[in-house]
């Protein structure tokens, strides 16, 4: 089966009701990003950061995967679909996608601050964490999120996936945050690239990129037809 590698951003979850970051009314318009999503911010005021992610987890419980997530799952019938996402929501997993790699962490997970390899999945009945939360060993915990100013440990595995792609699709990202935005430069020459976004960012003209300037649900529907016709 051909390797269909997807790179998704906040835009794919927009139609589920999850706000993006940089659109009008986006998250960073309402919260100072460096205070709630950076390593400095967490050092300065960990309680504020815990609260910020508690609120985002609560919101996550009220939303569902949309048709774009579901079509990507359905494409697994005809392709080896591998999803690389900048999103920390679990909508790809809840849609049933079997291969999802998170570059920026996962909202429903926390980890020990003393032993970062100890990662815990939060239950829906116990979503909140604070500076007083302790893991089973009595150690303080933090959101399992890649803050700004921190490395992206999954970037190398993501590059390897992109380098093996037969088709590469970028969905719903403003392509302003690195290293995630650089993934499209690792696509083998000649590999078809599609970019689905109603307000697409500038893309390099020396790449074989087809821009589908539509919302994710419409664009992914159109893409699925294109890909299946090419089988
Ligand atoms: N369908 C598809 N794309 C959409 C839709 C939609 N319905 N609505 C908005 N978009 C697009 C916007 O046009 C924009 O290009 O989604 C993109 C959202 O861009 P950002 O808000 O910058 O989100 P993203 O690119 O995922 O941000 C990257 O920045 O703050 C960090 O860690 C955070 O992972 C995030 C990273």
Describe this structure in words.
The chain is globular. Helix 6 packs parallel to helix 9. By secondary structure, the chain is α/β, with parallel strands linked by helices. The chain has 2 domains: about 140 residues, Rossmann fold, CATH 3.40.50; about 80 residues, SIR2/SIRT2 'Small Domain', CATH 3.30.1600. It starts with a strand and ends with a helix. A hairpin with a 6-residue loop joins strand 4 and strand 5. It has 9 helices and 9 strands. The longest helix is centred in the first third of the chain and has 16 residues. About 30% of the residues lie in helices and about 20% in strands. The chain has a 6-stranded parallel sheet, sandwiched between helices. A 3-stranded antiparallel sheet has the order 5-4-6. The structure holds adenosine-5-diphosphoribose. The site of adenosine-5-diphosphoribose has 22 residues, from helix 1.
Features:
231 residues, alpha/beta, Rossmann fold, SIR2/SIRT2 'Small Domain', 2 domains, six-stranded parallel β-sheet, three-stranded antiparallel β-sheet, 30% helix, 19% strand, binds adenosine-5-diphosphoribose
Annotated CATH topology of the largest domain: Rossmann fold
Tally of DSSP helical segments: 9
**Radius of gyration in whole Å, from Cα?**
18 Å
Strand portion: 15-25%
Quick one: how many beta strands?
Answer: 9
Describe the protein's topology:
Layout: E1 3-8, H1 11-14, H2 27-30, H3 33-36, H4 39-44, H5 46-61, H6 67-74, E2 80-85, H7 91-95, E3 100-102, E4 105-112, E5 119-121, E6 141-145, H8 155-163, E7 167-171, E8 193-196, E9 209-212, H9 216-229
Parallel strand pairs: 1-2, 1-7, 2-3, 7-8, 8-9
Antiparallel strand pairs: 4-5, 4-6
The protein binds adenosine-5-diphosphoribose.
């Amino acid at each position: 089966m051909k390797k269909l590698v997807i790179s998704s951003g906040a835009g794919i979850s927009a139609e589920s009701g999850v706000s993006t970051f940089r659109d009008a009314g986006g998250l960073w318009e309402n919260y100072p990003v460096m205070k709630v999503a950076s390593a400095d911010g967490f050092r300065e005021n960990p309680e504020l950061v815990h609260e910020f992610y508690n609120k985002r987890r609560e919101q996550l419980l009220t939303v569902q995967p949309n048709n774009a997530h579901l079509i990507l799952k359905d494409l697994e019938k005809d392709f080896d679909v591998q999803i690389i996402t900048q999103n920390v929501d679990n909508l790809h997993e809840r849609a049933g996608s079997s291969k999802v790699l998170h570059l920026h962490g996962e909202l429903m997970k926390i980890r020990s601050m003393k032993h970062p390899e100890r990662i815990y999945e939060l239950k829906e009945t116990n979503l909140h964490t604070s500076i007083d939360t302790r893991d089973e060993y009595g150690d303080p915990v933090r959101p399992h999120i890649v803050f700004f100013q921190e490395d992206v440990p999954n970037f190398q595995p993501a590059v390897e996936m992109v380098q093996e792609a037969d088709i590469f699709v970028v969905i719903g990202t403003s392509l302003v945050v690195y290293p995630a935005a650089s993934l499209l430069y690792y696509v083998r020459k000649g590999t078809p690239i599609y970019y689905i976004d109603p307000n697409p960012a500038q893309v390099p003209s020396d790449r074989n990129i087809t821009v589908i300037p539509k919302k994710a649900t419409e664009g992914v529907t159109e893409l699925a037809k294109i890909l299946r016709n090419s089988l």
